[in-house]
Amino acid sequence: MDTKGASFIGNVMDPDCPSRMVFARIGDKWATLVIQVLAEGPLRFSELRQTVHVVTPKVLTQVLRALERDGLLTRTVFAQVPPRVDYELTPLGRTLLEPLKALREWAESNVSAMLASRDDYDEREDAAILRPPGHPGR
Amino acid sequence: MDTKGASFIGNVMDPDCPSRMVFARIGDKWATLVIQVLAEGPLRFSELRQTVHVVTPKVLTQVLRALERDGLLTRTVFAQVPPRVDYELTPLGRTLLEPLKALREWAESNVSAMLASRDDYDEREDAAILRPPGHPGR
DNA sequence: ATACTGGGTTACCTTATGGATACCAAAGGC
DNA sequence: GCCTTTGGTATCCATAAGGTAACCCAGTAT
């Protein structure tokens, strides 16, 4: 499998295909949130922490390093004290914004449907627990 | 926060907003793969295993139950022996196909760029390890 | 009688993820 | 001398995710 050619095209269903790893990365919960937060422009470490909220510095660092490694954002250190580090999407990273936005909008507008479905399902399950003894004792 | 209203709209950046959970689910690695595999029509359990590949029955069951609970697919049991169970996307599940397809296409066509970036990054890291002793012993 | 089938379940164990906490460096202010 | 600030690291620990292997059911085929 030639991963050096610039026009390599993958298949996410093949577990040995690197695009599956890529898909895993861009499907990662933290990564997707960070990318979307950076949509409007560069942010500092502490600003990211506040915007994405709750994430611990360790986790945020891991996510940022991974995204930097994958060429989706750049890390710029300013020689100041106290230090200042800006994170900014690369052009490649920016191309992810459209697909992620679609997914996000789906999520935000279909919450109710999914939560309602969960309630239904759980009620059905609760009822099933009470069903007559069709259930052989293991 | 009213999650009963049919037109509730969420915000994925709010860690307390249920849409964040939704986003986590539809960003889940296995879930996204399963949904895409079901794009072409209903499949049986064993067909799903073969197509998504490598996933163990336990994990596949978990993923399918979660997706069923969230109303993204239906599970139909045929009263046969040996049993036959079909999984099929609901209309709601089908609305996810478009956004997921975009993401998948992004992944499949940007693998090379990401892998190249990783190579660069790792080489820079390797070089950094050899840098002069600027590095205070902990 | 036994084996085979499909769609699981269960128990057990390992690994990955992520949270809490503490700490550090370097320059400037008090 | 000590505190403050920012952008992290280091360490430890708890939970979650996921893999392995064995087993189950019920009918049909051998």
TrEMBL record, chains A, B:
Residues 17-115 form the HTH hxlR-type domain. Pfam families: HxlR (PF01638). Signal peptide: none annotated. It comes from Arthrobacter livingstonensis. This is Transcriptional regulator. It comes from the Bacteria. PANTHER family: TRANSCRIPTIONAL REGULATOR, MARR FAMILY, TRANSCRIPTIONAL REGULATORY PROTEIN. Keywords: DNA-binding, Transcription, Transcription regulation. GO terms for molecular function: DNA binding. The keyword Ubl conjugation does not apply. Gene3D superfamilies: Winged helix-like DNA-binding domain superfamily/Winged helix DNA-binding domain.
